Amino acid sequence: MTETKVFMLPDLGEGLTEAELVNWLVSVGDEIRVDQPIAEVETAKSMVEVPSPYAGTVTELHGEPGQTLDVGKPLISVAPAGAPAVEPVEMAANIYREEEKAGSGSVLIGYGTPAGGAAARRSRAPRRAAGSTAAGGPVAPPEGSISEVSDADKAADDLLLMRTRVPGRLGAVISPLVRRMAREHGVDLGGIHGSGESGLIMRRDVEAVISAPATREEERTGTEASVRQGSTDSRTGLAISSRTPLKGVRKAVAANMSRSRTEIPEATVWVDVDATALVELRAGLKKSGTPAPGLLAFIARFVTAGLKKYPELNTRIETSSDGSQEIVAFEGINLGFAAQTDRGLVVPSIGSAEKLSARELDEEIRRLTAVAREGKATPTELGSGTFTLNNYGVFGVDGSAAIINHPEVAILGVGRIIDRPWVVEGSLAVRKVTELTLTFDHRVCDGGTAAGFLRFVADAVEKPVQLIADI
């Protein structure tokens, strides 16, 4: 008898020890191939699709969506092709195979089967509240949303219900619409006995659970939860309104910031800068019809030029097992920039940024911001920076003594650009002024180096044409 193979959750990034299981992309009884994505997991850095190293029949799924799994622990068990396995629902299996051959375009556990037979990966949209855009404005519900489901859609459910199986339950087969309805209303599909053929879960089954009154057990559980949340804090005497587990990106940020504060003897220097010439340069490019990079891209270009002149700030300190330390320098600059996302603050980095022009840097900043907000940035993109640029001016603040992104040794912050009175050639004028703040590791350099770098970037902002001509 061929032995069932158990695939352990791998390290999906540099030193990650755990990941949250978001969604299974396969079910018990499915036939899978090598490198087929089997699950979506959320690490401390990004959302990742995990591929299978084995081909065969899925015999067991080790974990439930929402559960945090440790690296090195079982994720999925697979019986090689031809080995005895859990008997699948034959009708569902046949439909899966027929659609895979025909290329129907239907979604099969996160896949499409477009004509031509090529399997298309699905793109997981960022989590947002219904009726809102990324900018927070109200929008109409998307086409096909639960609130707009018609009678025709209900009929389509009956056609779709064989196409998506609930992980670990061969008899519970539902359409994507019903799955979404259950998710939005917090309905546990594992506890529903479907009224359809072979125990299939239909729309009416989920609707019945949503409209049913709470049971005594649910009422008791809810009351206990309220008591836990509403209990009194012993230190302050205030009622506790909620408890939120520290996990995912927030947990990683907390650990990294704590380590930075503990290990790095940091110092901060700052300077107010007249950015009028830079603002006018960009406005002139836009007026002429020439594609104009964002202001952050220009500053990123100045930063890479400054790091070439002051390479001490583009290093890392490594500590050996015997306690000895050394400063590690790099041939190249991976420029990280802080990006706020629905999952928290992340720092994607632009590889070999010193080789890129302001326009190329602008393109990379936009691309990486988009993939980071979608949760699709790779561990390499989120963990390979050598210096970080932080534009907190977008939040309407002037300055901040930022925490260094360990294991880097410096971070440059850019405040908002606002009109301020400024002395120009002995006369008072209104200028576009911003504040640049550099926080650096005092172990790798002294204040002279840090001030030299900061002044270099400030001078470039004040006289951008001159610097761009030089570089």
Q: Over all CA atoms, what is the radius of gyration?
A: 27 Å
CATH class of the largest domain: Alpha Beta
Distance between the termini: 68 Å
How would a textbook summarize the main sheet? 7 strands, mixed
Number of domains: 3
The CATH architecture assignment of the largest domain turns out to be 2-Layer Sandwich
Notes on the structure:
The protein is α+β, with helices and mostly antiparallel strands. It folds into 3 domains: 1-87, OB fold (Dihydrolipoamide Acetyltransferase, E2P) (Beta Barrel); 91-212, Irregular (Dihydrolipoamide Transferase); 250-470, Chloramphenicol acetyltransferase-like domain (Chloramphenicol Acetyltransferase, 2-Layer Sandwich), CATH 3.30.559. The protein has 12 helices and 23 strands. The protein has helices at residues 90-102, 151-160, 176-184, 203-211, 216-229, 248-263, 276-287, 295-309, 358-373, 379-383, 447-462, 464-470, and strands spanning 5-8, 18-24, 31-32, 37-42, 47-51, 56-61, 68-70, 74-79, 111-112, 120-121, 164-165, 173-174, 266-274, 315-319, 325-329, 335-337, 339-341, 344-346, 349-350, 387-391, 410-414, 418-424, 427-441. The strands form 7 sheets. Strands 13, 16, 19, 20, 21, 22 and 23 form a 7-stranded mixed beta sheet that branches. A 4-stranded antiparallel beta sheet has the order 1-8-6-3, with no helix packed on it. It has a 4-stranded antiparallel beta sheet with strand order 5-4-2-7, with no helix packed on it. Strand 9 (111-112) and strand 10 form a beta hairpin. Helix 8 runs antiparallel to helix 11 (447-462). The longest helix has 16 residues, at 248-263. The radius of gyration is 27 Å and the shape is elongated.
